[in-house]
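A further point concerns the way the authors explain their paired sequence and structure data. For illustration, here is how one protein appears when written out as sequence plus structure tokens:
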Amino acid sequence: MPQTITQKILAAHAGRDTVDPGELINVRIDMALANDITAPIAIDLFEKSDMGAVFDPERIALVPDHFVPNKDVRSAVQVQAMRAFARKYHIKHFFELGEMGIEHVLLPEQGLVLPGDVVIGADSHTCTYGALGAFATGVGSTDIAAAMITGEVWFKVPESIKFVYDGQLGEWVT
């Protein structure tokens, strides 16, 4: 049975040949992303788990990008928590102030999102990496915390819709 690009990516990351729409699967992630709003929640949950290490310090990205420069003491404390976590667990992709930008532009610019990757991010715009041929979706901070522990996440394989266009395109339409 033919598979969509999404099914092919998810199957590969689940260690399988195929997956079917509606099926629940566990997949290995290539990147977990959190920002200055969502990371502190994930960090707090991770620390409560008493894990001694993250699953892979090279496959986690922490990007302060919502309140930069920090707008108040609270937002500065949030970035401080990210920085301390990154140092403690040797997170390779913590982007210090002045080294970063908009998280969803920064990761592709740094070569951290590639075609065929599975990327989860605690931000609703994470799905923009689909334009690069990756499977990417937004998740909650609790999912990021769990992924930082296991390196995996569960998904329900999405259904797809086939569009068939008939006829001729009008003049000036490509």
